[in-house]
Task: structure prediction
Amino acid sequence: MLLTAHRRVSCRTASSRPIHASSVQNALKQVEKKQSVEIKRSVAPSPGSVYKSRQERYGEVEKEREREDYVKRNELGVQLLSRKLHSQIFKGVTFPAPDRRYVNLAREHLRSHGLNPTQGSVLPNIDFTLPPLQGKSIDEHFFRIGAATSQPWLDLANEFAEIDAPPKPDYWHIQPGWTKYHHREDGSGFSEHVSAPEEDVLSFDVETLPNYHPYAVMACAMSRNHWYSWVSPWLLGETDDPRQLIPLGNPKSHRIVVGHNVSYDRARVLEEYSVAGTNTRFLDTMSLHVAVKGISSHQRPAWMKYRKSKKEEQVRKEEAVEASINFIRETEEQHSEEADVVKRADLRRIQQDIEESLPQLVADDDSAAESDSKRWEDITSANSLADVAKLHCDIDISKETRNDFMTHSREQILEDVQDYMDYCATDVQVTHAVYAKVFPEFLRACPSPVSFAGIMTMGSSFLTVNEEWEEYLKNAEGIYKELDDKIKKRLVELAEQARTLMEDERWKEDVWFSQLDWTPKAPGKSRGIDPPPKLKVSILKPTSKRARFTTGHPEWFETLSMKGPLSPYVKNRILPLLLRLTCDGHPLRYTSSDGWTYEDNIGQMQKPRKTAASIHTVLGKSLGLKELRNGRMACIDIECAMAVCDGDMSEELARKIMALADDVLANEGKLANDPSISQLNWHRIEPAVPEGSEEQRESILWPKWYWELAKPKKDMPPGSLDITVRNRLSPLLLKLSWAGWPLFHSREHGWIFRVAPDAQYETRLRKLSFYDSADAHLQEAALRDGYVFYKLPHKDGEAANVGSPFGKTFVKYAQDGTLTSPGDEAKDALDMNAQCSYWISSRDRILNQMVVWENEKVALGIRASKGGKANAKWGMIIPQVITMGTVTRRAIERTWLTASNAKNNRVGSELKAMVRAPAGYAIVGADVDSEELWISSAMGDAQFGLHGATALGWMTLEGTKAAGTDLHSKTASILGISRDQAKVFNYSRIYGAGMRHAILLLLQSNPNMLPEVAQKQAEKLYASTKGKNTHRADVFERKFWFGGSESYVFNKLEEIALSDKPQTPALGCGVTHALSKEYLPPGFGTDYMTSRINWVVQSSGVDYLHLLIVAMEHLIKAYDIDARYLLSVHDELRYLVADADRHRAALALQVANLWTRCLFAYRLGMDDLPAGVAFFSAVDVDAVLRKEVDLPCVTPSQRVPIPPGEALSIGDVLARTGGGSLWRDGRAMQPADGAPGAGTPAGYVAPDCLAHRAASAGFLRAQATTEFGEIKRLAELETGQAFRGDVKRRGAGSRTGRPRRPAREYAPPAGSAINMDAEIARERATRR
Result:
């Protein structure tokens, strides 16, 4: 029976979860009596039904009963999968029912936290036929489809890890394209030109010249038996087009390519730029290393410190050995020269002693290294190829040559191409050596084929963009520059005004300006000020040319007059600007370092001619004459420009140029903003005065702060002020105040504010003292004048310094009037900084994205559409994804995986929406609802064997915002904060953050809160959620949390993290060596508990993603869905799907999510799944990449709203797929008949699904109680031994050997569901 909800029904929204308390109560009574999960409930008539006939009322009641008959609930009121879905997934699987005591404990626990199991919600009862499982259980199913998806690449990868590298060629044949090298057994060899390697396994590396372009200039590859080299035709000078991609061969051939940070190499491979995709898969040795021996971010500082100290110790040891050897040599010389027999004997004895101790010195070093090998710092490393090669293979490689590719020209690289090719080949060889070590280790750490198949697919991500990409770059950069220039202009005006205060020292009267350095400095020519000329009057008489230093004309005009209009300097530096010369429609600009350049449409600097060298002459025959004729260059007087280029030196041309100069001079005001004329040096040359006169002796002086602002800068005229809101002077020029008190800057404390001595100012901030000598004036003001200084509040607490009061965290303070300045300057500056913050931080990464546009060489395979644009431009980006970039195996990428959602006040934040589906395609995907929160809560519930058994589990599954019973609402009520703020608290706590972090978050959310109040609030929160800790390992043989709503969860997370071999529950993936118990010293701060708990949660989240991906790959192949993996961002998954298949792909995603959730439940010992988490709340079908389909993505740089896409609930998807058919022709899905496949698949080991279920009811109850005394009594009943002390007692507790107390001596608490103590005592007696 298929029951679908209205469109947009969400399994996670309160509106679709009406509460029927009486119905659930009846259900729970039946569960308790019959242990049955079928519920029959009476239905109260609606108010309007009394006016209906008895037959009508009877029919409605029967229909309602029929629906209710199919609603399944567990003993705690959690609605489960329909019987039809359950029978298809958990067929033949029956775990032991939860112990009756466990169920009653769970009910008591929920009630103690204000949760009523009878308040369960009623969800649409979803029934449809699923694709058949490929195994006898959901676990075996995933093993089988993971193995199928990973082949044949897994076999190829294993084979490649076992081969010996063939000999590297001694000489490289330098020719465009690929060269294949053959090696004979006798040591000889030969090479041949090939179009592509056409190998099934390759170790691969490319080299680029980033200062020129992002494309490869050379590459090397190594297969089982051959070496290959590739050279770009551009490097050889055979073409001016640097956009050369590297072919690897037939895209349909199955191939494994191994590289270090291989996504960088993949982006230079020709076949990867295709919507259809290839059968090439890329394996990253960096990712493999991080997964098995990587270090967490918290460990990195300690590792760096340890490595430094170890290097220093090694240096000292080597110096000691060297000194000993030198001393032995000196002793030998003295011995040979010494005549005294006694002294010779002494020298010989000393020499022998040192010689005997020297081997011991070296041996001590080796033994010390061996004894230290168990330290975590010694069995891990950073992620560079050099560090990884040293760790895994003890190979030392030098990466100094890499710097040549950053600094050298094409010609220089080509000159030594043999050396550079050998360097590239060495990286290929070392990468394979590393791979041979880390790949087997990875398979041991992550044995499930699902993990391998998941990273293979994630390594094939891609993004499609169209011409809107270029418009996006242009708009974002334009808006940023416009806002930046506006603030810069105002700051320059303020700086100029402040400089005038130097004349009569009025700056001393200003509290802000007096903080500046007013030491007089004389500006020179580099700052646009020429020194006063020391010339005699007699030589200033006019000559045949205009005399310099007499007219007050701008300097460019004086130079032109003195040197002549046709002089080389004028032709190269001044005339192109007078002629307003342009290239490709853009005005030319000149700098001494880069020569003549121009800025293209997307803000990139280009040269008029493709060359590595700077261009300093544009009006010549080789460049100017050619480009003016073909129209690429233009100016206001083509005839004049071409005459100059052709070498015309006539008087007529000279007069014409002088007339042009006079015209520019006469129209100075009108041309002030002209991009060419404004580059001329308009500094005025004042008439000279007689030598020795008073006027001449008078020099120009600037204050030092202004002098430093005007220091020479690239691409800016001398004397230009370069000041932005990020400059330290800006807050002082803007006269910023905090709550009316002036801002100061301290070297020790960052930005602070000063409060008057007699002010009654109340704040939670601490008074500051100053110990840095640079802050002596501040300390003097505090001690002598009684001023009080406080830090500006920082989001990370008082220990952190504010580096700039223009950060985005201060925007709200400008809006509420806390941070002010005269006028609206502060607000404008903060608004500008906030608007541009995303673009400022991401600009370089976005502008440097390598977009390969479709052309005659690159066929993306995007089919034309009738509805699309006639001349649509399409391109593709290969994201630089490191598939396992953190110790939790999360993927990382600097641009796309960190991109924020579009915000209406953030320039460029619409980045993700620039990824567009080509005509005829759609982007289909979903976000996993509360993925890691549910995983964590399910681990806690697993101890009971029952979904929703813990408070956190029940709130995650059944809590609603409307009733205030969801996790975030509960936290918000405890702390008195908003629900959105509570989310931050909850997730940080689940990831292992401590109370100090909670205090910091509280102070951030309420700047007026006192620290002691925040401390009490945080303690209240942790006591209510995480609970208290026993801090004793003797009671129940472990430390554990008790009394909180999340105590069960944290105890389970810590149990996994602290086990001898931590593994994720779903796929059994192991922790990196650096976080394993074997190598970490015990003790707070050195056990990295936060990182280890975070690993359990996030690594399980990665398992979830890999399971989803593998399930999708299986369904795409099995049902011929035209879809390809696009990108995943942690809990988001997106596919590019043909329009005709978009709804089938949406259904496949829902099935994949159902299977994945069921796998987690199964591996945690629960043979059912809550209905509320079975399906995505919505699957998005969209034309662009964005978080939600209804986000308009309107920003300052994107004003046009993007039309919404579709968000389809499971009901919507079923309605659009004929009730749930994945077949292309829509035929009905057939139930599975019989077991798929015979026997157990090779390598499959059935898991111990009950391993996470509690072995003791006593320990379960101990976690729920709030009294440590009761915990001790429960432990006594469990062990028969007494325990003394309280929770504050650390280390080993004290047990006594007295006989156990009879169970009757301890009466159960009033109202207890069962006599727990008696049950525990009987259980212990039975075991004994």
Observations:
- The radius of gyration is 38 Å.
